[in-house]
Amino acid sequence: MSSPVADVPASLPPTPAAGPRPGSSVPVGASRPAAGWRDRPGDPSPFLAACRGERGSWTPVWFMRQAGRSLPEYRRVREGVPMLESCARPDLVVEITMQPVRRYGVDAAIFYSDIVVPLKAIGLDLDIVQGVGPVIAEPIRTAADVERLRPLEPDDVAYVTEAVRGLVGQLGATPLIGFAGAPFTLASYLVEGGPSKDHARTKALMLGEPAVWAALMERLAGISAAFLQVQVDAGARAVQLFDSWAGVLPRRMYAEHVAPWSAQVLARLEGQVPRIHFGVGTGELLADMAGAGADVMGVDFRVPLDEAARRVGAERPLQGNLDSAVVLAPWPVVEREARRVLGEARELPGHIFNLGHGVLPASDPDVLARLVELVHTETAR
Ligand code: CP3
Question: N or C: which end of the chain has fewer CB within 10 A?
């Protein structure tokens, strides 16, 4: 924890950990010990230190959607390969996941996949349409439709296991974050049939057919947890549960019809790896979301981190929350806003610097690289 940031230039690829990585002696695919990530002071990863609620050598940084269309090298390898096909090819998944790690020197990698991959893997007819998002051929709206959702088995996503193993080998000391969509966000795509602004059908099902809704959420919680477990078993060292669209819900609906199933997913991973939970526009829900049990709360760009800490409780590490749009402004603005975020995070037990949502496709990769360097040098201790 003591090496100054200057010894680890942000522009270099991550160096392998000195000595055996915690957990590396566990045969790949075997269950990991269900304890211990909290008890590893001296772990070389500032990201994992922040998850434990410690101030490590510097404030760690990663960006949601750090892999993707903002990178020319991503567009090159994706040429002619449909999105979901790219997620099923371990060679491409490893390459695309590594691209932002090499270029930005971020403190964690996020697994290149998509929240709808496990739904495709259990046989649902869906696609990701560029510029639109996930589109479901036959939406799920009745009790009979819910029956089409079978549990996810590790063999359904063998390519995920293979890709995670490959990544763990390349990443060395840099942790890989696995992820899944939370039951509500998955349900919203399945019920609406695609992206939606008002999520009206989803809310109508939730309120009008609570038993069908509960059955749908129960199955999705199982799928979401199983998808995370596959990634953790293969070597992911943290997970993020994305409830991207939960912010469309009033607090009372969230608490009654969503939180119990998010809690179920998070409980399945308890003690194995740190769990991060994030959604967009969730300022009003932060306390309830925190109640679902994640170790770290992700905060979107609308709520200053010091205010978020008042809502979730001062003991919880937070992740966030520079507005993604700021990256498109001139550098002095980026610098000022990044410093503001760091200032608002000063009293937190642990802070993971991130954007308030994903990297926008129009972002300049050089600005993101400079931002990582700024956060590292500003916070080196
Ligand atoms: O770098 C990373 O963050 C890792 C990869 C990642 C992708 N999707 C790759 C992707 C992650 C973590 C996701 C999660 C995801 N997918 C979420 C939750 C995160 C969030 O942003 O709130 C959601 C809601 C989805 C659904 C989804 N998939 C959308 C809305 C889109 C964008 C559609 C578009 O074209 O505008 C996708 C497609 C997608 N997922 C892309 C990438 C890199 C872009 C598709 C492409 O490059 O062709």
Answer: C
